[in-house]
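Subject: mismatched residue count in predicted assembly?

I count 227 residues in my input, but I want to confirm that the predicted structure covers every chain. Input:
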Amino acid sequence: GEKVEQHESTLSVREGDSAVINCTYTDTASSYFPWYKQEAGKGLHFVIDIRSNVDRKQSQRLIVLLDKKAKRFSLHITATQPEDSAIYFCAADSGGSNYKLTFGKGTLLTVTP
Amino acid sequence: NAGVIQTPRHKVTGKGQEATLWCEPISGHSAVFWYRQTIVQGLEFLTYFRNQAPIDDSGMPKERFSAQMPNQSHSTLKIQSTQPQDSAVYLCASSLGGAGSDYTFGSGTRLLVI
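Triage response: the counts match. Full output below for your records.
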């Protein structure tokens, strides 16, 4: 089955700098790659996604890049703010008609003022 | 829209007892997913339903875990003979169910087995 590896377990940046979180996946059939944010004591909250028919997507300060050849995708947070501090999870679907997501282990992002 | 509702928020059970966790998905969402979250293992998929039918239970420990979705408004995850290693946050999520539909997660049930 699909395996998703999230490369940074922790990441610390200064406010205003950019943060980049990298993930790789194994299943070539995967076509949907969402990102979720989890703040302390709360459930996961969807932030942005990318589908395999594009290689870049931007939503305000969030940019997702997808490299299908390398089976790699990344989340870029520009102009970081303290409220961006949270755990970020990448995920990949299984392709086909199975809609379950496989998650990475999460990256704890800390933005210091 | 109250989002995905999970009850209880916290549950403490003694080793060997049964625990039942409840999930109310968002109205109109046809897919319901259960995950278990721990520090060590991260988010582990357990099972999912689409239009109330079980689709994939490949993550369920077969002997003591079971899940049901008797109607479109709720799903239950039952753990029999709970063990300390079952302690985790159990997360339920729902989605519209099509390919590439994002999940909406509940706040989770924190289960502690003592």
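The radius of gyration of chain B is 13 Å. Marking this ticket as 'not a bug'.
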